[in-house]
Write a structure and sequence with these properties.
The protein has 16 helices and 16 strands.
């Protein structure tokens, strides 16, 4: 065999092998040879892994078993991830008008579709459609009809879209709110507590500018399947805290929410959020219910839409006109509260008002899709009419109570259901230590107000049942903070299913002379003498909110330790 020629380095007398020419076909690499098959297997394996990771079974769990068709309304099993599958399946179907109508859907809600159902009972119901989900036929037909949203053609085109390709589930109930916070823990109070109740519906939130959304927050919202709407805004006053942004004195403009720009002009985000609610409500069918809430000071203990009275009412044919509003503490009226009195008199001076009427909090409202759209439209119309924010009144609560007291909701065909504190889905507890409460009634939530389980820690309604939603908990942060962190941030337990303390709470004697029973006793003065009556509203607040001695001296029954 002839050896290849070698070149000789005459200076160093070292041989260098001659490389083969590039055009020598005999020496080219054979990429198809068995020895190099791994080169092709690597990209092929990557492609298979990618599509396997992105995909999921079209009907996860038994919820979509074609052999056992049924409605979601009849399903009482564990939480299921159905929204993505439903939306994907609906998008693949042809939107034909002759599919399941909403009247047929309403008749279907009271039935369990299955093989044992009589043929005559299938008539005029969605059970007649041979799809894994009877709801799919409804959703498909509803999409063709734009979900039959009232005044749909008059609304402005919206450019905002949820992140990560998420889509609304038109047949589900929804919880909505505005909230952009820097830490995951602040979202866990609202989002985490709601998912912990087993709620399977949509959580929809406006989360502020995308560029300010922290990576861990984004991961958390995505994992909890929150329909997160980023939005840009421009305000006349820069550098304000997130809490003050809601009531921005100079107002803000939504830069990218609408296709053709924001035509309303500067207004507080507390009012602009109603335009967001309107956008979201248009994505649901008329059978859906929506609950709009303040997100910063709200947490959940039970599924709000599983409230027994609400479930019974939703079976009635006229339930869709109900608008549920929630009262604050009975001692707080529109006449006694200087803030609410000022909002009403300052912006609606010529409108009749009952000073003894209870204050309804604008941070919690619930109703059917159509009722909520009517409510939101009324709030926006009142804002455009009276322009209270240009009179130095940036709050939305003035509009909220004005529309109730003036009877405008009834004129629009709604039936206002006003729930007293502790008697409905939402329990607003903030004003229990407010300035309108008599001195003799002030005290802790458990020993004085009897609305908190002394061992397990959860908030109860007046009848002793667990409150589904608790609003304005931050006014009781010194009592509720530890429990909330343990339940939702550290995720140690489900509310109501274990004790808050390892042993029963102990109560210490109250010493009005020294206030030695309080944890921040070092900040106290030697005596409680000389306290002014106007300071008795901060019973359980920490020293940075009010002088600590002005708070501790109002506890008649001592505090819990342990």
């Amino acid at each position: 065999m002839r050896r290849p020629p070698r070149h000789v380095d005459e200076d160093r007398e070292r041989t260098i092998p001659q490389l083969p020419d590039d055009d020598d076909d005999e020496n080219k690499l054979d990429w198809c040879s068995p020895e190099r098959s791994w080169v092709w297997l690597l990209p092929l394996g990557f492609i298979i892994f990618y599509y396997a990771y992105q995909s999921e079974p079209p009907w996860p769990d038994p919820v979509g078993d074609p052999s056992r068709p049924r409605t979601l309304a009849a399903y009482d099993g564990p939480p299921l991830r159905v929204s993505e599958a439903v939306n994907r399946y609906v998008a693949s179907l042809k939107p034909e008008e002759e599919l399941c109508s909403e009247d047929m859907w309403l008749r279907t809600l009271s039935k369990k579709c299955g093989s044992n159902i009589k043929k005559e009972e299938l008539q005029d119901t969605c059970c007649a459609f041979k799809e894994p989900f009877p709801e799919v036929a409804l959703l498909t037909g509803a999409r063709k009809k734009n979900l039959m949203v009232p005044n749909e053609e008059k609304r402005k085109a919206v450019a905002a879209k949820p992140l990560w390709g998420f889509r609304h589930d038109p047949g589900s109930d929804a919880v909505m709110g505005l909230g952009f916070y820097p830490s995951v823990a602040q979202f866990q109070y609202f989002v985490g507590s709601l998912r912990k109740t087993g709620f399977r519906g949509d959580i929809v939130m406006a989360v502020g500018p995308r560029k300010k959304l922290k990576r861990k927050v984004e991961e958390y919202l995505r994992n909890q399947r929150v329909l997160s709407y980023p939005f840009e805004y421009s305000c006349s006053q820069k550098g304000m805290s997130r809490r003050r942004l809601l009531a921005t004195p100079g107002g803000c403009v939504l830069d990218d929410w609408y296709v053709e720009g924001d035509s309303r002009g500067p207004r507080p985000l507390a009012l602009a959020r109603y335009e967001m609610y309107e956008t979201w409500l248009r994505q649901y069918s008329s059978t859906s219910y929506a609950l709009v809430l303040d997100t910063r000071d709200t947490f959940f203990q039970r599924d709000p839409f599983a409230w027994p009275d609400l479930k019974r009412r939703r079976r009635d044919p006229d339930h869709a006109k109900d608008l549920y509003v929630y009262e604050e503490n009975g001692h707080k009226t529109v006449g006694s509260c200087r803030w609410n009195r000022g909002w009403l008199k300052g912006c609606f001076p010529n409108q009749p008002s009952d000073p003894s009427a209870p204050v309804r909090c604008s941070g919690s409202t619930m109703g059917s899709r159509d009722a909520m759209l009517t409510y939101v439209d009324a709030m926006l119309a009142a804002s455009d009419e009276f322009m209270c924010h240009r009179k130095g009144i940036p709050s939305d609560q003035g509009y909220h109570n004005f529309l109730i007291l003036s009877g405008r909701h009834e004129q629009n065909g709604l039936r206002v259901v006003s729930n007293k504190r502790g008697h409905g889905v939402v329990h607003t507890i903030g004003a229990l230590n407010g300035g309108d409460v008599p001195m003799a009634e002030l005290g802790p939530l458990d020993t004085k107000w009897k609305i908190r389980d002394p061992v397990k820690g959860f908030i109860t309604n007046e009848d002793g049942t667990m409150s589904p939603v608790v609003h304005q908990w931050d006014r009781w942060a010194s009592e509720m903070g530890r429990w909330l962190d343990s339940a939702f941030v550290r995720d140690n337990f489900v509310p109501g299913e274990r004790e808050l303390f390892d042993r029963p709470p102990a109560f210490v004697d109250y010493d009005p002379a020294t206030c030695t029973d309080m944890p921040w006793k070092s900040a106290h003065r030697s005596s409680c003498a000389g306290l002014r009556a106007e300071h008795h509203d901060w019973v359980s607040s920490p020293p940075e909110r009010r002088p600590a001695k002005e708070a501790c001296c109002k506890f008649g029954g001592g505090i819990k330790t342990g």
